[in-house]
Specification:
mainly alpha, 3 helices, 0% strand, rod-shaped
Length: 96
């Protein structure tokens, strides 16, 4: 799995979890009061920030695990770009 795909999957895994956490926190703060009385804005900012950190951590851990399983598959986007750039300008071809 390539780097970008792992990041997308990490976001898809963390997003529903963070949405559930946000709803639970808002309902806990309501504690029987009307939901319009809840100060939701700081909660939302904290949950968004924590979600971003969680996606970054999950992507790093997933990359480490993928690299440990198959070091050649998780080489990252730079190696493929460098190889295709070398082929495009002909620097890796033999001169006759």
């Amino acid at each position: 799995m390539v780097y970008e795909e792992r990041n997308a999957w990490a976001g898809l895994i963390i997003s529903p979890i963070s949405m559930v956490v946000y709803v639970v926190l808002v309902l806990q703060q309501a504690a029987g009061r009307p939901l319009t009385d809840v100060d939701w804005f700081p909660l939302m900012l904290w949950v968004i920030g924590a979600s971003i950190v969680a996606v970054i951590i999950l992507s790093i851990v997933w990359g480490i695990i993928a690299g440990a399983k198959d070091p050649t598959a998780s080489a990252g986007p730079t190696s493929a770009t460098a190889t295709s750039a070398a082929w495009a300008d002909g620097s890796s071809r033999r001169s006759s």
